[in-house]
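Bit of a strange request maybe. I'm writing a small parser for structure token strings and I need a real example to test against, not something I typed by hand. Could someone generate the tokens for this chain?
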Amino acid sequence: MDQVVEEGSAIQAPPMQMQYNSPSLSRNPLFQSEELVHGENAANNRRIQKTSPNLLSPLGSPIRKAFQLTKLDPQDAWLPITQSRNGNAYYAAFHTLCSGIGIQALVLPVAFTILGWTWGIISLTVAFIWQLYTLWVLVKLHESAETGMRYSRYLQLFSATFGGTCVALIIVGGSTMKLFFQLVCGHCSAKPLTTVEWYLVFTCAAVVLSQLPNLNSIAGVSLVGAVTAIGYCTMMWMISVTEGRLDGVSYDPIKEEDNMAMIFSVLNALGIIAFAFRGHNLTLEIQATMPSCEKKPSKIPMWRGVKVAYLIIALCLFPLAIGGYWAYGHKIPASGGMLRAIYQYHGRDTSQAVLALTSLFVIINAVSSFQIYGMPMFDDMESKYTKRKHKPCPWWLRAGFRAMFGYGCFFVAVAIPFLGSLAGLIGGVAVPVTFAYPCFMWLKIKKPKKFSIMWWLNWGLGLLGTVLSVLLIAAGVYVVIDTGIEVSFFKPQ
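Reply from user aminoacidic:
Good idea to test on real output. This should exercise your parser:
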């Protein structure tokens, strides 16, 4: 029953079902937050809710209960990540699959040439389990029952991590478009496009598709991206295994004469593996598309979708890495990985239709993944407008933001087309985002009992991830300087 807290104060009922909302980004949330107000009697401090004038009547409680609102930020309805909260476990699985199986997995066999069979499989397994744990941490931290807040964005980390991913997608997608055209129309009289022009074709397709308004609206795109990712991963390892091992294949780990060079080569290989596991930082954004309340928190369908998605991811990545290394050994191309190996070693004895379909799957997945990785950037750009103007972004400005981001990535792709050769270095930069920061977040927000299992686990993994990041970055820089890469600014091949 409703209780009168103090004379003249609002009448309030215990909330039967509280819906979680994102932290307020604006100065004028629809309902103000609750505050502790100390009365004259200090022994009987009571929690009093400040409400807007229209909720001061006895009808206030039923109205509040009917709307099931606590702290509502109108900006959530204006931004692409939280604009539509009708997601479910299937949406979570689609988005997670599309972002979890990416083109970066194609270079996993390259890491095995340094680590060998045993340590390669161990490293891949440890990275997979570690990433799955930190993903579970983010799912749990997404919403707080104590404050009623939903933390829907990983904003500060996106510019460095996902902006670079979109550039890599343009490079791989554009280059694969060129290969696909040569396969399908190799004897056409039409003049072939240059690599830069193929980059532009890919970017235009990605920018057009990016006009879909919010994360839920691209669920179908994510489904297509997930299916094509599973398709090309499966086709690649099956082609490699069925064609058999190449003559003269060696599985002995590559040895360096200098011990320091050997250490850095091993660390660089670990960086390549880490680069393959950097997609789950979109977890908060994906979970933000789901409705959530006390009885049915969003973490339940989210975790259900993640478990299905990661089972499929494991069934794709492990056969790809193990089958690719078994087939090519040390002959796996360091740049391009599995895709280049199939064209280089099996381009003549494999059906052209199969090769063309594999390339088409890579292209479709790259265009689909661009939408997933670009959405947080779109959300960030639009939030700057909504915070200033206190109204939704008009369609023409939204389109301009997304085109500006897409063609900005295109410019970087043309300027630095050798970005794929820096997989180990990029992996080192991404390590704390994927493996360390979620652990520190858990310690800060959940505050586990000191010296408990969760306290030791998160401190250990967080510190290990931070130290590993520093070592991997140093190793990546050393390998680039020592072995050299073909630096061709503004000259994509």
